[in-house]
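Q: Give me the 3D complex with NAP.
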Amino acid sequence: MITQPCCNDASCVAACPVNCIHPAPDEPDFGTTDTLYIDPRTCIDCGACTDACPVDAIVPADALTGPDIAYAERSTQFYADRTTEPAWGAPEIPRSLPWGAAAPHVAVVGTGPAACYTAQELLRTTGAEVTLVDRLPVPGGLLRFGVAPDHTSTKRIGESFAALFRHPRLRMYLNVEIGEHLTHAELAAHHHAVVYAVGAAAARPLGIPGEELPGSISATRFVARYNGHPEVPGDAVDPTRSQRAVVIGNGNVALDVARILASPPDRLARTDIADHALNALRGADVREVVVLGRRGPAHAAYTWPELHALKNVPGVRLVVEDHPQVRAAIAGDDERAALLRDVPIEPANQAGPPPPGRRIVLRFFTSPRELVGEDRVRAVRVAQGDTQQQIDAGLVVSAIGYRGTPVAGLPFDDATSTVPNDGGRVTDPATGHPRPGTYVVGWIKRGPSGGIGDNRVCARETVDALVQDAAEGRLPSAVGTARDFDRLIRRRRPKALNH
Ligand code: NAP
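A: Here is the predicted complex, encoded as C-alpha cells.
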C-alpha cells in the first residue's frame, strides 16, 4: 500500500515488473490523484517498488495500523471506480545526443527538487557536466525549507539528492546569487545551457488592511522559520499570548501550518523543527487554530492525505464550523466535500478564549476583510455571506500561495509570476522565439502548484528540450571553461562554498 509520504514522482512505476501501480505517467489520470495506488489483484509482492520509493511510502498491507488503514480503503476504492484500462506504456527511451557529439556544460540555478531532478536526468541521459548554483549556503530549496518538519519520510528524498551531489560530473557552488554576484550573461558565457530552477520564493499578498501589523506573517516566512531558514531570523514571528491563531487559505501549506501550530510541543520536539520555533510555540500556548477557506469544502485546495493527517494529530481535535451551507455541501454528492463526513460539526464561538483542549476549526465560505489591532493583531474581521464577524486571534498566518519573482536577465510574466517558456525553453515575449540555451523548470516554469514528485516529469520535459537543442546544434558555444568559471566565482564571491 502506498501511504501519506507518496511524492508522486513515479519511481515505483518504473521499477514495477508487472505494471501494477497506477496512474502511470503515460496514463490520462496521472497527476489527478493524491497518491499512486498499487493494484492488489496484479501485485506479486516482489518489493521492487519499496526499494525504488525515495520516501519510504510503500508498506505491506498487513502492516498498516490505526489511521493508516484508510490507505487500503482508498486503494480499493480507486480500483473499484477506475475506468482507465491499465495498459503497458510505450518503452521510455530518453532522447540522447548523437554519437560523438560533445557533451554540454549545463548550469542549473537552484538546488531544490526541480533542480535535482533536472541534474539527475541530464547526468543519466547524457555525458553532460552539470554546475549547480544556489544563493543559500545549504542545498535543498523547498525540500529543506518548505516540507513540514513532522513529514520526516518526505524529507528522506533528500538522501537520493545527497548521492547526486557526489556525482563525479557535478559541481556545486553555494552562497552565490545569480543577478547579485554574477550576471546571467556571465553564467551563460561559461556554459552551453542555463536552467533556472529558482522556484517561487515570494508570498502572495492578502491585500487587506492590517496585513503589516506585528502578529501577521506569510506562511512562506512562517514555514521557512520553523525549518531553520538562514535568512529568516528566530524572532520573525512576533510572540503572542493569544490562545487562538488564524490560518488563511485552504491548501496543503495552510494545513501544514495549522498542524504545526496546534500540535502539542512535545510531539514536535521529536521532529526536525528548528529549536527557536519550538521554544516560541511552547511559550505561545496556541490551543485553537481556525483555518479560513473562502470557498466551500468542495473547492478546498488540500489533498486527501494531508486532510487525513490533520484528522489524526495526537492530542488535537479537528472540527468543522457549523453553517447551513457547509452542512449541505458535506451531505451532498461532491466527493471532496464528503471527505469531511467523519469530522464533527460544531458551533464556533470565536470571541474570547477557546474551549479547553487543543483543536483545529475548519471554517468555510469565510473571507478575511481586515486584520484588526493598533500595536499588533488582536482579531480578524471576516465576511461569511452577508454577515461580518470578528475572530479574536493574536497570530494570523496567510497561506494563500507562493509567487515567482523576476529573474535578472530573463523575461517575466507578471500575470502568472512565471518566466515565459515553451515546454521549458525560455521564450521572448515579443517574438515568441526561444532564447538559445536558456531554460526553466519547476515552479518558475509552471507556477506554484504541485508537490515534490511533479518536478520529475517537469524536469524530463525541460531536459528533453535541452538535449534536442544540443543534438540539433542550437546551443550557443561556451567561451569560458569550468576553470575560468571557478576563478570568476572566487573573485566575485570569496564566501562561495564549493562542493
Ligand atoms: P494552493 O494549493 O494554491 O492553495 C492556496 C489557497 O489559498 C487556496 O485555498 C485558495 O483559495 C486560497 N486563497 C488564495 N487567495 C486567497 C485570498 N485572497 N483570500 C483567501 N484565500 C485565498 O497553495 P499552497 O497551499 O501554498 O500549496 C502550493 C503547492 O504546494 C500545492 O500544489 C500544494 O499541494 C503543494 N504542497 C504539497 C504538500 C504535500 O503534499 N504535503 C505540502 C505543502 C504544499 P481558492 O481556491 O479559493 O483560490
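A quick observation: Residues 206, 248-254, 256, 293-295, 299, 301, 303, 306, 367, 399-402, 448-451 surround NAP (CB under 6 Å).
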